[in-house]
Amino acid sequence: MPNPNMIGGGRMTRGETSGDRRHFSDVKLNAPKLLSRLWRYMGKNRRLVILALVLSLSSSMLSLYGPKLSGQAINAIDLGAGKVDFDTVFRCAVLMTVFYLASAGLTYLLNVVMIRLSRTVSKQMRHDVFENLTALPVAFFDRFQTGDIISTITYDVDTVNQSLSSDLLQILQSTVTVVVSFVMMLTIAPRLVIIFVFTIPVTVLFTRWLAGLVRPLFRRRSAKLGELNGFVEEMLSGQKTVRAYGREKAVLEKFDEKNGAAVDAYTVAEAYGTITGPSVNFINNVSLSLVCVFGSVLFLQGKLLIGDLSSFVQYSRKFSGPINEVANILSELQSAFAAAERVFSLIDAKPEAKDALDAVELTQVRGDVELKHVDFSYDPGKPIIKDLSLHAQAGSLTAIVGPTGAGKTTIINLLMRFYDVDTPEDRGGVYVDGTDVRQLTRSSLRRAYTMVLQDTWLFHGTVYENIAYGKPGATMEDVVKAAKAAHIHSYISRLPQGYDTVLSDNGSSISKGQKQLLTIARAMLLDAHMLILDEATSNVDTRTEMRIQAAMRELMKGKTCFVIAHRLSTIQSADHILVLNGGQVVEQGTHESLMAEKGFYYRLYQSQFDSGQ
Amino acid sequence: MVQLERYLRPHWWYIFLTMAIKLLATGMELFIPDLMEVILDEKVPAGELSQIYLYGGLMLLCAAACLGGNILANRMSAVSSGRITRAIRHDLFWRLETLSARQMDRLTVPSAESRLTSDTYNINQLLARFQRIGVRAPILLVGGVIMTMRMDAPLALVLLSLLPIIAVVVYFVTKTSVPLYTRQQSVLDSVVRVVQENITGIRVIKALSKTEYEKERFHGVNEELAAVDQKAGIITAITNPTASLTLNLGLTLVVVVGAFRVNSGACLSGVVVAFLQYFTMILNAMLGITRIFVMWSKGEASAKRVAQVLAEPADLTALPPVEPEGTPAHIEFRDVCFSYTGVGENISHLSFRLERGQTLGILGPTGSGKSTILALLLRQYDPDSGEILIDGRDIRTIPYEKLREKFGVAFQNDFITEGTVAGNIRFFRDLPEEALTRAAEDAQAMEFIREKESGMDAEVMVRGNNLSGGQKQRLLIARALAGDPEILILDDASSALDYATDARLRRCLREHYQDTTTLLVAQRVSALRHADRILVLSDGVVIGSGRHEELMRSCQEYRLIAQTQMGEGKEGA
Asked: What is the ipTM, given to two decimal places?
């Protein structure tokens, strides 16, 4: 197999590597563990690996055969002018042609196998990362920049993949060559091998030392690139705001800082990483010189034959090639290791606690929801919800009101089980139809709710796809009906491609109110027994809001509803109003009873007509 | 790469030097076997021990020079490729930042992101690798060819005649693979997009139990990425075996032709033997060159994507200034029409004047064009017809920086950065602490900031996820106020605030920002009733304009809205 690394003194490292700043998980991996995990990915494609090995061995063997043929041909030519043995020459030429064709074919096949193998492995890695991403608790994404995560799933995986595809195979091949050459040299002149007994440990020690030095550099390099990516992702998402403030230059300065840090980390890692090649090459050259000089001395002393000396030198040259190779690859592997650390740390990030083993599917939902003595905190020691109890009967409407930051959205998080309550199971918790939600599978629990949040979310897809998102197989008719009910149909029909217009979350030609209406249309297609509306219409104007009231009532009919709204007018008809302040229920009751109490709710209610006079 | 040549230009000398050092080091390395041959072939038979030591010493010297030269050259290549990458990224980020809203919508953020990181990275790799392996292979090739030419020209020509075949193969493979790599990068955009959407939409996805669906979606793009990647790999992998096959067949031909020439006495058999030696060198050099081309394909695809963004024409450039006439209003819209898509009109024949310090309220149903008016004033878009003037000057004639300095804005789509509370209010500006505190006070944000342990330095998580909707809005308003803007724009910026807070906020705005001209979009009549002028919009058309009292009399739509909001209030009270 042609050796791509014969050219150029220093082989370079590709890819970037792992993050120190904030690891995605605490799991620490040492080199053997990393290797064994990487091997596991290869092992899943055992057939390809074996095929690759067979192919590379056969092509290595063929490469020994080629020179032999040309040697024979030359012997036939060597007979001199007029005496050339043309029969042998032609026979050899034909054989050479066949052989080279076969060799090229094998090489190509081997390349294809290796490409398939590495792409399969990297696909699997991306798959595993994504799989875990979807299982992570929502809180995870509050801590890490999206761009940083993206950097891992793209570049880090790619770095690992590139190393795997070429390096591991080469290490195998090179090891074979090294061993064979070493044995051959032993048989020729055991004494000279002493020099290699010196060079090999030096090479090994040096490579190890350098690897230890370089690995943190590669880690830094990956981390800095991840940070840069995180910054870029964040700032480009907020590009309009940055522009509105005319802060492009200041943001650019900040970018330059991050960019500089990423480039510096790259340069340093690269500069040190590329020392290995020339250094090991140097060690080899030194030992070659030593072999040559001392071999000559031995010859002059009559202790070695000239033929042996020359073949020894030949072997030692052959020997140094693969050693060089292995050393280079080892240094390259540092970059792959550092990247793999990051990939694995994301794969190992702790997912939402698994559903309890005996968790049951929530079926035949009636919609009776009860909270008993619920305690909850995001950060231990900073309670957000304290001893909250509440019972929402099936089909009832519960409104949650209170000043901003009172913990309203937290209750939604608990209902949907984005977080688990801190209350021990024997004391209380959240119950649906009398079952503790911790005993239910998350997916069946969440399916039982329809949720419309104030933070709308659209994905890059057509209007139709966005509305039908929660209900696969919804017909265009269903979608149009929902859009009409949500009073967004006329806007959609004015779009250039109507329902086939592609939207994106960042798209500028759609207002937040319109996004909310689209989200409501999405919810209208769902058929769950419980409904959560968290400021669902906060950016919709009051007239439109009124127009969609009928549809909203239809949506809410027969469902257990939880509504958060600032416009208290929208919740007057609630069966139960929960007034929160500072994580505690300060009052609860119906609108009438609360108004009569003339307490917190009363003041909150009155203030909306105060209109700032 | 050609389009990015100007980034290489300042570094040509440095790169040249790097390659010269590399060349020198390579020369030294090639010299070592020669020295060894001298020892084995001449000095040993002659038994000159001191000469053997001398030549051995020379070998060590060459090895040391080779070591130093390679390390230095490698380091230099990392430095220059790093610098070039940094410069490209710098310009690219600047260009992305300054793209108009329309251009950015077309490009999409995920694609911008991957161009800025993945593509520049590919370019970086190409630059660095080229410097490291780009010297040796061509030199060895040329050297090998010259040596064979000198030995036996006809035989060398046999070998040379085959080189065009390799050139043709390389040409076609490169031609096919560049578009494939371009596609690969664009599939990568989709991968980035799916991951990004899954992170930002995680709550909705989990709530709708769409996790399996999203996995499928990711599986789709992941498969596609692997498929394109594989296809590109399989095609570029053709080059290497083809090149070695061609050369090897050439060698076979050389052997046959050589046999005839030796037989006819035209050359000696030793020449053919030597030919074989040099042949290995030529072959390795050729394989090295094909590798460079493979790298080049990938780098070229990325370079094109980067250059494409850099070449985006400047949108919304400033026109030559025109002196204002008469006594200008602070802000004036003159018969402005605008459409986002070119289909229908989002703003139709809009005209209004606003004096300094006045407040304009804008009211209307969702999608009636309220935010669009603000976008036009901010010059995120240029109107299709009509003009927008500030102090009598068409905003298209005001230099961009000058124009942006005037505004403080809080949009509906909250953009909160990871960092601190203070950092979010400051927002990359050079503002004194007092301004931040004052703005936070006025925006009613201080009450929740004080509750935090570290106050203004309290941590803000990614996308402000540790803040409630109302807290985020107050932070955004504080940001808008902190710069003491000439023009304040609040686009439904207090919708998540409870009434009491909202009322206090409005009082502060009235009392402390009297010289600030304010444009206010709101759903609540109560938020607008003190405005000096209120525009009532419907489908981009002004259907009512005036003060609250006037509109209550003259505009039915306005009266209806007001009655719905106030009326229900009375009923409750």
From this structure: 0.86
